[in-house]
């Protein structure tokens, strides 16, 4: 089996928000799909505070993130926990149907809890759409855009997270004569390798 093929699946970038009494919660999610005209499915990690909140309050929103979303917002909502910090402290938002909707969003979809399928790590939550609207005409951010342009990392709680294998880790070789840096997936340099800067052979290279 080649796990790399999973990386060819396409996703968007979303902020899933909810509210538990006075506590505003939310997390970044990429695994969201429309099932039919009034049903949305999201895959949320069982350890996320947002998952717990949605299962208790039965209400949540999907904020569609635009390409100008700051990396700081993604770090706050994608790596911190809503019960540790106030994730909304430094961003502008409004409450719509009592759920936080950020101002810098393409639009929002508000759902009530409809059903769930539990796996060992994630819960697929089916939401029934009760309200939705456009907020800006900004371009929605895809997961690919996030990875390529914001050079973003994925949290281990994301369904798409893959642990780095040795195959995807790069080896770095440095030329001891001129400092040229060469990155490769291979463990060794080829026997006939020559430094493209100063021309010395592979013996002059040191592996980092
Ligand atoms: C790019 C990215 C994509 C993510 N996608 C998902 C996802 O689809 N489902 C999920 O449960 N968590 C996902 N996460 C991880 C959560 O956003 C993260 O665990 C968050 O800290 C949970 O916050 P909470 O505990 O306040 O709910 C993603 C994180 C990043 C950075």
Give the topology, please.
Elements: E1 14-20, E2 23-29, E3 32-36, E4 39-45, H1 49-57, E5 59-64, H2 71-79, E6 93-96, E7 99-102, E8 107-118, E9 122-134, H3 143-149, E10 171-175, E11 181-184, E12 205-207
Antiparallel strand pairs: 1-2, 1-5, 3-4, 4-9, 5-8, 6-7, 8-9, 10-11, 10-12
Bound molecules: flavin mononucleotide.
The site of flavin mononucleotide (FMN) has 25 residues, from strand 2, strand 4, helix 1 and helix 2.
Instruction: Choose one word for the global shape.
Output: elongated
How much of the sequence lies in strands comes to 35-45%
Domain count, please report it.
Answer: 2
Mean pLDDT equals 92
Major pleated sheet: 7 strands, antiparallel
What percent of the residues sit in helical stretches (DSSP H or I)?
10-25%
User: Strand-and-helix sequence, N→C?
Assistant: EEEEHEHEEEEHEEE
CATH homologous superfamily (4th level) name of the largest domain: Electron Transport, Fmn-binding Protein, Chain A
Cα radius of gyration in angstroms: 22 Å
Number of strands: 12
What ligand molecules are bound, each kind once? flavin mononucleotide
Distance between the termini: 31 Å
What's the CATH class label of the largest domain?
Answer: Mainly Beta
CATH architecture of the largest domain: Roll
CATH topology of the largest domain: Pnp Oxidase, Chain A
Low-confidence stretches: none
The helix tally amounts to 3
Strand order of the biggest β-sheet:
2-1-5-8-9-4-3
Label the structural class. Answer: mainly beta
